[in-house]
Structure prediction request, 310 residues.
Amino acid sequence: MTPLPIDSHLPEIVARVRAARSLVLVAPPGAGKTTRVPPAILRAGLLSAGHPNLVMLQPRRVAARASAQRIADENGWALGREVGYHIRFEKRIGPETRLRVLTEGILTRQLLEDPFLEGTGAVLLDEFHERSLHTDMSIAMLREIRQTVRDDLILIVMSATLEAEPVAKFLGDCPIIRTEGRTFPIEITYANAAPAGRAQDIPDRVADALTDLLTASSHDAPDDSSRSFPIPAPPSASRPPSPRRRVPASPRPPLPPTTPATSSSSSPAWRKSAGPRSGSKLSHIAKTSCSSRSTAASPATSRSPRCAPL
Prediction:
C-alpha cells in the first residue's frame, strides 16, 4: 500500500471520533482522506454490532465508483462484498457490504425512507465544499437524528478547501483536524532569448526548451541503463530550423483497359442498357404504370400516355 500523508494522522482521527462522535477533517487533495479514513473507522471498532455499516457521501457518480474501487484494491477487498457503491441506475452492494459509497440523491432518499438509519453507525460527508441542496439537507437531518434518537451515530465532514469553524459549530463545537499534504520542490528557469537575426516561432522555442530540460534531467538522474532513453541534441543556434518536409504522394495504380463494345451499331453501349429489358420485372412495372395512368386520364386531356420516371 502506498504511504499517504494522512496515514500518520489516522490514530489522532480515531481518538477524536471515539471521544466526540463527530469531527471536521480538512486535508488537501491527494492526502488520502477518502480512501484511508473510512477503513480506519471500520477497523477501530467504533461501530456497534447493531449498526455495523459505514456510509460515505460522494457528490459525483464517477468519484463514487472510483473511490469504492480504490478502497477495494488497497485493502484486498472485493467490490460489491466488503465495499460497494450505490449511484443512480447502478448498485453494487451486497448483504455483507459494510462500507457503502453513495451519491447525494441516494443518501437523501435513504434518509427519507429510513429516518433512524437502522444498521448505519457512521456517515462521512466527503467533498463537503461542493455544497448543494442535498448536502445541506443531509447534514441537517443527520444532526437532528444525533440529537434526538441516535446519539451513537458518528458524523464526519471532510473537505480540502473548507472553512471548518462554522461547520464545527453547527455540529456542536466538534473537534477540527487539519493535515498537510505532500510538497515537491519547484525550480523556475527562463529560456534564453532568440538570437539576433533569427526569427524563431513559439513551437520551435518550446521544443528547444523541452529538449534542454530532458537533457538536464538525464544527466542528473542516476545511471540506470534499463530506464535510459536517447535524447536528441538541441539544434545549433547558427543553423536555421529545417523546413517541414512534405511526403510525396504515392503514384496511383493504372486503370484497367476498357473493352470495346461488340455491337455494330453507332450508339454507345450505355444508351442501349439504359432502359429496362423486355420481359423483366422492371419493364412489366413500367408498362403497368403507363396503362393505369392512361386509362385514369379523361379523353379530353390525355393525348398520349406518358409514364412518370421511376
In short: Confidence is low (pLDDT under 50) at residues 225-232, 296-302. DSSP finds nine helices and eight strands in the chain.
